[in-house]
Structures are given as structure tokens and as C-alpha cells.
């Protein structure tokens, strides 16, 4: 790998990668070779004949014909030279083999539109910035998983094919399933709650979720990676928030340690490990704060809107110097039937949204585990308990108090790296009009 | 957690869990309390009045009414006593709170059929054996991921919604997708190959895959967790097999270290860490060996059948004392168009199946990365290159030599624990007639 070259002494090396750029000059040829770990300069002085004319020998002729993106393997003399801008090393070529020649016309350029870049995502992903995004995602996820493993969580793979809706019946994808219909899971909600009834205690899952959402915002996709956790024996949603904080601190700590410098160099962003505890503000209070800043949330219900989230995030950053804020105690009217309501106030729920740099990345809550209360809340929301049949069974044979959260992985990355859209940080984005590549 | 009690000194403790059994005797009541970490005996001597008659006081009355499965929180005096069979400790009850009472009639018993147990999977999963399966799965996966992370792999989340088939057009689930149709990914094959063209180098994914397979065997599901890896710059499928071996050794080593004793106690199975290298036998030779053992594979094509796999596995176990065997060099006629064929023999492929305890758990191969050869092989297989459009593009702009494998997670667990069906080791099995719970 190219990143390992700098540690080697001068001598013969063989490396492989793709052609980033070719400078085919009269007396010398330069090739920048790239792999997933970095880039290195290859140099090939041209041979001249007795009259000083350039000779068409190898590898010069092959280099002259090299299309950008071609994958090659080269052998040559590694030389450390401080004057070489690219890492202080270069390789003087002895031989070059073209593994696959790219066609010369590349369909996208640095200034292509996002949509055009997504059409050619595999070329777009060759950019060091794009590659870094997915190495960051890998590091972030592994830090979360390591936390979970160290704390005795069980990893779930819940089914994505369901007999009925897991959230609202709107935004549901229907699948032809032999002689019947199946639906794609909108979240692992029901099944991670089932794990509580099964006595699994603490569970997590990182997997796809599907929403037939026709919207085209920068924050929505029809398929996204959902980061989920659910734990038994909580006293309230406060326990869930504490878990959530610790996970994010673990994730950001790992990303900063492994990629902090690269993120600063390529994205101009300083990764900040959040301090604990994250600020917590009840939603009603947050709306008052936003109002006092001159913004009235234009909604008929009790919810926030995206501008309100940006405003409260700005307030929290100014007041507490924090990029995260838990908005708590959402109104029962705008939360699903399975959110628990505190004993002393049936109008609110033991729930929260987590806002990061002005955008919601997660919803968490204590779940209602008492079958009679749960059934009543379902009916109140206009649901038919018959249709929830299998789900309600989970609560009839004993279940501990429990709660958890679901978090959009791409949203975390988008906001961490100050990107404008989750499309930039999703390997292959899926939207209402995008199913390819 | 119950597993932590043994390390505590005698004194007051509070624990939570569900009721496993109640023995309501005349002079004393015993309750076995269970949580995800273990079980502990609770004891409550009955109070008697001056005449020696039992008094109906608390918590005695509550205990008499306790249904199995009810989740309770108890406080009492922990006492170490070697005579107590269950871990040498018991808790003398002071108080008991019922968190959720289970309904008294449990719909399944220890001898219920597998299908009935799956109907009530959340109760079935309360058994220590079932719980252990998913803790093993967690440990196994984390060991694989840790190997990948330490070796600079990038984790992918490839889309499960696709515009066309990723494998054969048979066994494809169709989804209503706004004004068009989408298909559920049968594997991440195309997208992990795309990562090679994108210069990601080494990638892995653990995620769902979908097959509209109407069969009811013990090895098939319509949705399963696929463990996938793909690496650049290989010389042949030998490099893929070496990666595959190292991953399995890492996984089995972790499982044996963390759960070996429990597996022996609950499943009667000794977890064996496989030695490297695993035996490798070309398929044609394997068929000769099987034949010499008196079994003729009853197939018209060049493939093995399940009995043939069991026979060759028995041979390998007898000959090499190994539970794994790579069957290599499968005929081109029975492999997908994207498997590479060696230069000197176009009738076979640079591919393998991995057999574990007599059953196939994985297919791996070097992929054909030369666009002209790849296109010719697709046409030879009766595919229309037009329909493969986006996939073939990945090879037109340069791509390194590469290969990888896909492995069924449930099959590994089934064979590791000597279970009869993947249904036992899948959190929620999905088959042609099973979409619930």
C-alpha cells in the first residue's frame, strides 16, 4: 500500500493503484498513482538518442497513452527526496503493467452536479474526500459496536420483511411475497422491543430501514442505515439519553483520533468530541427560547420545524458551547402510541429528539410496557389493536421497563463533516427517482 | 445483573428479571429468577401464627400468584451457601414488586414443535440455549469486524433496493416503488465490486439479503444475514481463501474463549478452532473421492449435492481431522458469468465453496475484471449486456484484479452448534409461509 512507502528505505518497490494524473513532458514523465491509502509520484526520464531526440521506448509510450483511472502495477526505485511535494518520496519507473485501461473520456469532472456525480458514483468515490467519508463511517461504527460489546449488548439482525407496518401505514413499501404481500421494515422498533420481552436485556442493530417517503430534502432517503439500541430496566428516557451520549462520545473520540487531521485538511472541519452531559431542554421551553430569538415555529401541532431546530442549536452553541442538544418531553399528540407518558402529565412523553449542529439525528424514548395502557394509547391514536396483534403479545407474557433510540447514520456523518446532503455521505443514495447505480 | 451476584459479599441486594419457576411449598417458597446473564434462587420462609398455621402475608401471597415469565424486581439478603445447587447463592426475600405480570397460560412448552416455538419466538428465546446462540453470534461477528478493522477494510452498507437483479432473475422479490418497480438485493455482489472500481481496496458488509426461494429446507430462508468481503489486487481465489480462513479462525477463537464452556454445557458441543490452512480439494477430485466411498452424485451437471458435501466432509474429517474444506475449481457451466476462469482452462473457474461440518456455508471467487471477457461470459450465459449496463460500467474506467466471498451467518452458527435448522439460530426466521412475528 502507498501509505507504507514512506517508511521504507530507498530501493526497489512494486505498487499498484489507479492513475490520478499524467504530466507528459518533453524530457520527463510524471504520473500520480493513487490507492485507497494515499498517492505517490512516479517519474520516468525520457531516453534521448545521440541527436538529443526523444526515443519512443517503454514505459514512455505506455505512459503517454495512459488514461486517467486506469489501474496499473509498477516496479521502480523508491527515492526519498524532500523536494517532492507529495510526501517527500518518488518512484523512478523500471516497468509498468496496465491491469485495466480506463476509457479516456471521464463522464464527470470536479464541478459536476451532485446528481451527475451520483450517476457515476464509483468514479466520484475515487476522490480522497469521498474515500475518507467511508473510512470515517467505518471507524465511527466500530467504536459504537465496541462500546456495545464491552457493555454486554447482543447484536440483532431483525427481519426487513414484515407482515404489517412497524410505524405509520403511510410511507410503506409493499413487496409481492409468494401468494401474499409483505412490507419493508420502516424501523426495527417492534423487534428490538421483542428482544426485551425475550429477556435479551440490551440489544443493538445497525441495518437498513425503508420509508416510501416521496420527499426530496437533503435529509431524507427511501433507504437508510439506522443505528438502533434498546435496553431493559430503565427508570426513564434519561437512562437512554445517557447511553446515547456515551456512544456518541466513543464514536467521535475514535474518529478524531484516527482521522482528525485528515478531516481538517480535506473538509476544513475540526472534529469536536462532545462533553457530557449534553444539554437537555424540554421542547416547550425550547419553543419559548426560539420565540424569544424572534422565530415563531409555523406549525399547528406541538412539534418543532427544521428552522426551529437550527435556532435552538444556535442558542445552545452560544450558551453552552455544545453542538448537541436533547429536546425532551415531546407532546403525546405528536409521538407514536408506544411512547410512555409520565404518571403526572399525560400530555407529554418520556421521549427526546437529539439535535446535532441544527438537525435532528435521532428519536429516543421510554416505551410503554403495560399492556392495558399501551392498548389504550393505540386506540387513542386510531389504531386497531387487532392489527397490532403480534406486537401486543410481546407485552402479555411479562416484559421489563425499557427504552431505546434509532439514529440515522448518514445524518451524523453529514453534520459531522458539514456536508449539505446525506447524498454525499451515503454509499449509494436511494430516493424517489434514484434506484441506480 | 445476576451474574455479578456471586462476587458480592452477603448483604442486601436488589435484582430484576423474570420468573423461571415457582415452588410454593407449605413452609417455604422458592422462586428461580432469571435475567440475560443467569439465574438465582429466591427463598421466602412462610410466616406461621401461634397455632403453627401459615399466614397469608406479603410477599408470600404475591409469590403464590406469580405466573411464569412475569418480570419482577426483588430486594433481599444475599447469602452464600454451598448447598444451593444454583451457583451456591440464594436471596432471602424482603420485598418483591411485579413489574409486569405474565398471563398464566404459556402457549409453548419445552417439547413444542419448532414451528410452534417460532410462533412464540419471544418466549422461546427466553431459554438459556437460545439466548446463548445470539450472544455467540454477537461475539463471532465482532471478532470478524475487529479483524477487518485491523486490516484497513472499509465497512459498506450497500442498498437493498435495486433497479434490476443482482444474481439470477429467478428468486427475485419485486417491490412497488412509486411509479416503477424495484427489486430486493439477492446479494451485495455488484456493489462490493463497485467498491473495487471506486478504489476502496478492501471492503466488508454484514447485512440482509433476500431470495424469493419457495423451498422449505433446513438451510434456506427468504431473508438471511450475509457476511461479505471483497478485496483488490489478488493473484487468484487463493488470496480470498486465505482471508476467509483467517476470519473464521478469528471468529472461532473468540467464541471458544468467551462461550466455550457454556456451549459444552448447554449444547454438548466442543467448539474447535480450525487449523490453517484448511484442506483444499478441486471439485472434480472431490467427486472421485466421494465415488470411491460408494456415493455417485445424482446430478446431470458438474455440481455437488448435499449428500456429496456430507461425504467429502466425512472424508476430510477422517483424513485430515478438519471440520472445514474448500472445494475449488468449480466448472464454469455452474458458476455465474462474473467468476474468472484460469488462462489455461476455460472449463473451470477461480472459485470455491466452503464446506463446514458437511454443509456449504459460502461461495468465493476471483471476479473477471476485464470488460471484454466479462461481457463475452455474460452473453455466453444468455444475459443481455444492455440489462447489465450499470454493472458493466464499473469495469470500463479501470478496476483492479479482485475477489471475495459471501457467507451465510446462520449456516455458520447452525453447524457450529450442531443444530438441525437455520430456523433455530435466526432471530426471526423468514420463509415462504412465515412472515410473523
From TrEMBL, chains A, B:
Provide the E.C. number(s) assigned to this enzyme. 6.1.1.12
Which protein family is named in the record?
Belongs to the class-II aminoacyl-tRNA synthetase family. Type 2 subfamily.
Q: What class of enzyme is it?
A: ligase
Cell inner membrane is among the record's keywords: no
Q: Which residues bind L-aspartate?
A: 167, 211, 363, 367
Q: Where is this region: Aspartate?
A: 189-192
**Residue ranges annotated for the Aminoacyl-transfer RNA synthetases class-II family profile domain, each copy included:** 134-437
Main localization of the protein described in the UniProt heading: cytoplasm
User: Which species?
Assistant: Cryobacterium algoricola
- Write down what this protein is called: Aspartate--tRNA ligase
| Residues bound to ATP | 360, 408-411
- Report the locations given in the UniProt record: Cytoplasm
Identify the PANTHER family for this entry.
ASPARTATE--TRNA LIGASE, CYTOPLASMIC (PTHR43450:SF1), ASPARTYL-TRNA SYNTHETASE (PTHR43450)
- Note the subunit structure: Homodimer.
InterPro entries named among the record's database cross-references: Aa-tRNA-synt_II (IPR004364), aa-tRNA-synth_II (IPR006195), aa-tRNA-synth_II/BPL/LPL (IPR045864), Asp-tRNA_synthase_2 (IPR004523), Asp/Asn-tRNA-synth_IIb (IPR002312), NA-bd_OB-fold (IPR012340), NA-bd_OB_tRNA (IPR004365)
Kindly state which reaction or reactions the protein catalyses.
tRNA(Asp) + L-aspartate + ATP = L-aspartyl-tRNA(Asp) + AMP + diphosphate
Report keywords, A-Z. Aminoacyl-tRNA synthetase, ATP-binding, Cytoplasm, Ligase, Nucleotide-binding, Protein biosynthesis
**HAMAP family documented for this protein:** Asp_tRNA_synth_type2 (MF_02075)
Q: What molecular function does GO assign, one term?
A: aspartate-tRNA(Asn) ligase activity
- Its function? Catalyzes the attachment of L-aspartate to tRNA(Asp) in a two-step reaction: L-aspartate is first activated by ATP to form Asp-AMP and then transferred to the acceptor end of tRNA(Asp).
What NCBIfam families does the record tag this protein with? Answer: aspS_nondisc, PRK05159.1
Name the Pfam families for this protein.
tRNA-synt_2, tRNA_anti-codon
Amino acid at each position: 500500500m502507498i501509505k507504507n512507502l514512506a517508511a521504507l528505505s530507498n530501493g526497489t518497490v512494486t505498487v499498484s493503484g489507479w492513475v490520478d494524473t499524467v504530466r507528459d513532458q518533453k524530457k520527463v514523465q510524471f504520473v500520480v498513482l493513487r490507492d485507497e491509502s494515499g498517492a505517490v509520484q512516479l517519474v520516468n526520464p525520457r531516453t534521448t538518442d545521440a541527436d538529443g531526440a526523444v526515443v519512443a521506448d517503454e514505459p514512455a509510450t505506455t505512459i503517454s497513452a495512459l488514461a486517467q483511472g486506469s489501474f496499473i502495477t509498477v516496479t521502480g526505485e523508491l527515492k526519498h527526496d524532500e523536494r517532492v511535494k507529495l510526501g517527500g518520496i518518488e518512484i523512478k519507473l523500471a516497468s509498468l503493467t496496465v491491469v485495466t485501461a480506463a476509457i479516456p473520456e471521464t463522464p464527470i469532472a470536479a464541478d459536476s452536479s451532485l446528481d451527475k456525480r451520483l450517476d457515476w458514483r464509483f468514479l466520484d468515490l475515487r476522490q480522497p474526500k469521498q474515500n475518507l467519508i467511508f473510512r470515517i463511517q467505518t471507524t465511527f461504527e466500530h467504536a459504537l459496536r465496541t462500546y456495545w460489546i464491552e457493555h454486554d449488548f447482543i447484536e440483532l439482525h431483525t427481519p426487513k420483511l414484515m407482515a404489517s407496518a412497524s410505524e405509520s401505514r403511510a410511507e410503506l413499501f409493499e413487496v409481492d411475497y409468494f401468494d401474499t404481500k409483505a412490507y419493508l421494515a420502516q424501523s426495527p422498533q417492534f423487534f428490538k422491543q421483542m428482544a426485551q420481552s425475550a429477556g435479551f436485556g440490551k440489544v443493538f442493530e445497525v441495518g437498513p430501514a425503508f420509508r416510501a417517503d416521496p420527499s426530496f430534502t437533503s435529509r431524507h432517503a427511501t433507504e437508510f442505515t439506522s443505528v438502533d439500541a434498546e435496553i431493559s430496566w430503565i427508570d426513564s428516557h434519561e437512562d437512554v439519553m445517557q447511553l446515547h451520549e456515551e456512544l456518541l462520545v466513543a464514536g467521535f473520540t475514535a474518529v478524531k483520533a484516527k482521522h482528525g487531521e485528515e478531516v481538517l485538511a480535506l473538509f476544513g472541519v475540526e472534529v469536536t468530541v462532545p462533553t457530557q452531559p449534553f444539554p437537555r431542554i424540554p421542547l416547550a421551553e425550547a419553543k419559548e427560547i426560539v420565540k424569544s430569538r424572534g422565530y415563531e415555529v409555523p406549525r399547528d401541532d406541538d412539534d418543532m420545524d427544521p428552522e426551529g431546530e437550527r435556532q435552538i442549536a444556535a442558542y445552545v452553541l452560544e450558551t453552552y458551547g455544545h453542538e448537541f442538544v436533547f429536546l425532551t418531553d415531546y407532546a403525546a399528540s405528536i409521538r407514536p402510541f408506544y411512547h410512555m407518558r409520565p404518571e403526572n402529565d399525560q400530555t407529554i412523553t418520556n421521549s427526546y429528539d437529539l439535535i446535532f449542529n441544527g438537525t435532528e439525528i435521532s428519536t429516543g424514548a421510554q416505551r410503554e410496557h403495560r399492556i392495558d395502557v399501551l392498548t389504550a394509547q393505540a386506540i387513542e391514536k386510531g389504531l386497531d389493536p387487532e392489527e397490532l396483534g403480534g406486537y401486543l403479545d410481546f407485552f402479555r407474557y411479562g416484559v421489563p421497563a425499557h427504552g431505546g433510540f434509532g439514529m440515522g447514520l448518514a445524518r451524523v456523518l453529514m453534520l459531522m463533516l458539514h456536508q449539505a446532503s446525506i447524498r454525499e455521505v451515503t454509499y449509494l443514495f436511494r430516493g424517489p427517482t434514484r434506484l441506480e447505480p
